[in-house]
Amino acid sequence: MNSKFGSKMDRRAFLAGSAAMTMGAPVIAQSNDPTSNSVEIEQDISQSIVRNISSFRSLDWRPYFSNLNNGAILVDLTSRALHYWSEDESTYRLYPTSVPLTDDLTRKGRTSITRKVEGPSWRPTPSMKKRNPEWPDFVGPGPDNPLGTHALYLSWTYYRIHGTHDTRKIGRRSSNGCVGLFNEHIAQLFDLAKVGTQVLLI
């Protein structure tokens, strides 16, 4: 593999690999304006989209958190949505997300943001490298980076909420364990959330 990330690595092979595994999976498509919070059904994919879209709605934080100290993030893996509430309740955001490819890659429960990085670098985990030995050992910040433009690191090793340059992944089972957002959305969440923000994955 050469220093240019291996003849485009095969940027196409690497970024599209997960998407190819999810053909036919329920998809939520963002409206033409990626900065909007509206969501529409991508036509002719699956009847199960209707069930998925019906659960993509605003929620109250109280059933999930005892308080909003440092703000709170709820990731609903079923509806593929991320909810954010600020500590003073003045701000609420709802974003579509990508979710892990399979249940065994999924971790649920309570964690928190431990670090915020703009322009993150990426290394595959040992299990990722075992499944995909052709993947590079390191990818620096930039358009080839699978973490997109911003990353929120969680207290769980290897788990992050991050952006993606491959917008086809949003609304799909397409990640190796992390939660992905459009780069425009992770930039907004990056500014809103802070180290110590509570996170719950359900």
How would you portray this structure in words?
The protein is α/β, with parallel strands linked by helices. Helix content is 18%, strand content 27%. It contains four helices and twelve strands, in the order αββαβββββαββββαβ. The protein has helices spanning 9-21, 48-54, 126-131, 183-192; strands spanning 28-30, 39-41, 72-76, 81-85, 92-96, 99-100, 109-118, 150-154, 160-164, 173-175, 179-182, 198-201. β3 (72-76) and β4 form a beta hairpin. Residues 1-54 have low confidence and may be disordered.
Secondary-structure-based class equals alpha/beta
Sheet with the most strands: spatial strand order: 5-4-3-12-7-8-9-11
The first-to-last residue Cα distance is 39 Å
Q: Give the helices and strands as they follow along the chain.
A: HEEHEEEEEHEEEEHE
Q: Specify the helix fraction band.
A: 10-25%
Residue ranges: pLDDT <50 for 5 or more in a row? Answer: 1-54
The biggest beta sheet, please? 8 strands, mixed
CA radius of gyration: 16 Å
Q: Averaging pLDDT over every residue, what do you get?
A: 78
Task: Tell me the total number of β-strands.
Answer: 12
| Beta content | 25-35%
- Count up the helices: 4
Inertia-based shape: globular
Brief synopsis:
With 202 residues, the chain is of the alpha/beta class.
Structure keywords:
alpha/beta; two-stranded antiparallel sheet; 8-stranded mixed beta sheet; 4 helices; 27% strand; 202 residues; globular
